[in-house]
Write a structure and sequence with these properties.
mainly beta; 6-stranded antiparallel beta sheet
């Protein structure tokens, strides 16, 4: 059978080492040798001897979903084999978290991660009443974290001299040394007259980077996540 479909660009090949790698722009392959964790329902294929166990409360906690505060169920994947993960054909990215690194991530953008990573659930200061969500997941330790994003993300440097203001429905995450607060960019008079639709943002100060998706989460999209 001949077709571009069967070209090497699309063909899955055996993993050369344990752990996660990008299969393509829309999926992550994980060579499991023991255990790993993933977003529940994100597995699209696997081969080998693997078991999938629902982790409705997460691993030692719960990833909170933007706006609604509902949980993002996780699953543990155990055994020996290979599994592929994706979510709604969103773009996939792998972050290497090294000792001393801390990355705050919106739960809706988490796809999978190594069991060597630990995370805590933190309240996002100033964002509790906005669409960006009351809780975010803070990852630390040493390991790889797989993220998804609608489109190609924008990574913006933040400095003490130049804080960055982000729409709470568009923010994906930010690095450790940034502080957050709520910023109002409209006057009360403008809001009474209907406003611009961009009344409140999350302000990030300090030294680091903020990751932003190139679109806002609509109410319908937020319910699906």
């Amino acid at each position: 059978m001949k077709s571009d479909l069967f070209s090497s660009d699309h063909m899955a090949r055996p993993a050369l080492a344990p752990g996660m790698t990008l299969q393509n722009a829309k999926s992550i392959k994980y060579a499991v040798h023991g255990e790993m964790f993933a977003r529940q329902g994100a597995m699209i294929a696997y081969r080998g001897d693997l078991q999938f166990e629902r982790k409705g409360q997460g691993v030692g906690g719960m990833l909170k979903r933007a706006m609604t505060g509902e949980g993002l169920p996780l699953m543990a994947v155990r055994g020996q084999g290979e599994a592929w993960f994706a979510h709604e054909a969103q773009n996939c990215f792998i972050v290497d978290v090294e000792p001393g690194d801390v990355l705050t991530v919106n739960g809706r953008n988490v796809l999978c991660f190594d069991p060597t990573l630990s995370y805590d659930i933190k309240t996002v200061k100033g964002a509790g009443i906005t669409g960006g969500g009351l809780f975010n997941s803070v990852f630390s330790g040493a390991g790889r974290l797989g993220l998804v994003c609608d489109g190609n993300p924008l990574v913006i440097p933040v400095s003490p001299q130049q804080p960055v203001y982000v729409d709470t429905d568009a923010v994906v995450g930010w690095t450790a040394d940034l502080s957050t607060s709520l910023h109002r960019s409209q006057s009360i008079g403008s809001m009474i007259r209907g406003g611009s639709g961009e009344a409140v943002q999350l302000m990030l100060r300090g030294e680091g980077h903020v990751i932003v998706r190139p679109s806002e989460v609509t109410p319908q999209k937020a319910q699906q996540h």
